[in-house]
Specification:
Length: about 500
């Protein structure tokens, strides 16, 4: 990791700041034909690319273009050009940037980042066969239906370079916790990060400046869970001290302490509307509370083991709980009635989720995932871990796929409707502890025992890039709601990437 200046607050000053995507686009559109070609040619041979590197390339390419123009060299309709004194014909040009015609992808453009930069694949690039009609692009007259940019080159040539920049760079490292970080998350607007720790505190960090905003102290034992309210104005924390606390984000002040559980609280969340709080405890009960006044509204009893996980359905009408008793239960929010008990796991249930439309349930134990119908409670599929430890799971935003973080160093993608294995993402050198989708469903993020995060193309399974910098195994990771930032945590340290 590059050198960083550590401050008293535990923040680290960023060494590299990512440019907004509009800036490289402007830089590229201000380049002439020769400069752009020089940039693309360089990127085809360069194994790493950052926005700072692009600045350097643009400067060098523009100087080369100026020299070429002063020497009287340039383009002709057969796409010959002179850059740094070297003649290049079309067949030498990286044509995979240029084969996109009327919306048809003839160039494996969707995986151009992995192919061109060499990141995420050790396979040699094999050019695709020429498209029907030999639709070669040229710098001359555009063909019918072909879109050209300001440079006279197809627009996807610029977009391909921009796609190379659609990666994440380290922005800030947050340090300050003295014991393990149990959980962390972005605020709904992506401006803040909250972290909970075994050191009995929560810390609120500003994503824009990298500064520590508040340290939230008051719990008498380790903090197991934390989350933001849907409107982002409050933080909810659950602790082994048998209480939950509600905190004000702006001032970092304690608003309410919720007491009533007889043992550790392992899970908590807000209802989708933000008016109700749900908690699950080792005392085998769930409790519903008023988010505004902190008053206990209902206690749900029925599990014979501690509640390890719980969630509201996205429609807000039902509650799902998973327990050490190896079962899941579905409850009515309105009156607390038990609607169904889902049996089938051979080990304790450690995670559970509703699909976005509330129609499907995903549950996980250490040996397998299970997919259930939420209306009838019937088991649809068992997604076997094949003898490997299952460390995490989640639905895709569409609910059509399921991710499994596996102890065999892979991420597995399953069809939620079919229960069939769709893809296995191979690249980590240690067990995968955590995984998630971006909000648009196009990218998969994974964190591993090998101390790295990896970004994958969800459609193809191709590895896009690897984020390195953690000094311990990555235990959790997530995207901000807009997909522009990533949060990751190891034992005591958090990192923001953008």
């Amino acid at each position: 990791m590059e050198g960083l200046g550590r401050g008293v607050s535990g923040t680290l000053l960023p060494t590299t700041m990512t440019m907004e995507m509009e800036q490289p686009k402007v830089l590229l559109e201000n380049c002439g034909h020769i400069a752009l070609t020089h940039i693309i040619e360089t990127l085809c041979n360069d194994k790493t690319i950052t926005t700072d590197r692009l600045k350097e390339l643009v400067k060098v390419a523009q100087e080369a273009e100026t020299t070429a123009m002063l020497n009287g060299s340039g383009f002709n309709d057969s796409f010959n050009l002179s850059a740094n004194g070297n003649q290049m014909g079309f067949d030498d040009f990286p044509r995979r940037f240029l084969y996109r015609y009327q919306g048809r992808d003839h160039s494996a453009f969707g995986v151009v980042t992995a192919v061109v930069t060499g990141r995420g694949t050790d396979r040699e690039y094999v050019p695709p066969p020429p498209p029907p009609g030999d639709l070669k692009a040229s710098a001359g007259k555009p063909r019918e239906g072909e879109q050209r940019g300001l440079l006279g080159l197809p627009k996807n040539a610029i977009m391909a370079v921009l796609d190379l920049l659609a990666t994440f760079e380290h922005q800030y490292t947050f340090e300050g916790h003295t014991k393990f970080v149990s959980t962390c998350c972005f605020s709904p607007d992506g401006r803040f990060v909250v972290s909970a720790s075994g050191d009995r505190t929560l810390k609120l960090w500003c994503v824009t400046t990298g500064e520590l905003q508040h340290t939230l102290s008051g719990h008498l034992d380790g903090v197991a869970k934390c989350t933001f309210s849907p409107d982002g104005t409050t933080i909810l924390s659950a602790s082994n001290d048998k209480t939950m606390k509600v905190w004000d984000v702006t001032f970092g002040q304690l608003r309410n302490t919720l007491t009533g559980h007889a043992n550790y609280i392992w899970s908590c969340c807000f209802s989708p509307c933000g008016k109700t709080i749900l908690s699950g405890s080792r005392d085998c009960t769930l409790k519903l509370w008023g988010a505004e006044d902190g008053m206990l509204q209902n206690t749900l009893m029925g599990h014979t083991g501690g509640i390890s996980t719980c969630a509201f359905a996205p429609d807000g009408e039902t509650i799902l709980s998973g327990s050490w008793d190896k079962t899941l239960k579905i409850w009515s929010v309105k009156n607390g009635t038990l609607l169904n008990t889902l049996e089938g796991h051979s080990r304790m249930v450690v995670c559970c989720y509703f699909s976005a439309d509330s129609s499907t349930i995903l549950s996980g134990s250490s040996d397998a995932l299970k997919v259930w119908g939420s209306a009838d409670g019937k088991l649809r599929h068992t997604l076997d871990g094949d003898g490997q430890l299952v460390n995490g799971c989640c639905f895709s935003p569409s609910g059509k796929n399921v991710l499994m973080a596996s102890g065999d160093n892979t991420v597995k993608v399953w069809g939620a409707d079919t229960g069939t294995l769709q893809n296995t993402l191979i690249g980590h050198y240690g067990g995968v502890n955590t995984c998630c989708y971006s909000a648009d469903g196009k990218t998969i993020l994974s964190g591993s025992h090998d101390r790295t995060l990896k970004l994958w193309d969800a459609a193809s399974g191709q590895l896009r890039t690897t984020l390195e910098g953690h000094f311990d195994q990555v235990m959790s990771c997530c995207f901000s709601a807009d997909g522009k930032s990533i949060l990751s945590a190891d034992d005591k340290t958090l990192k923001v990437w953008a």
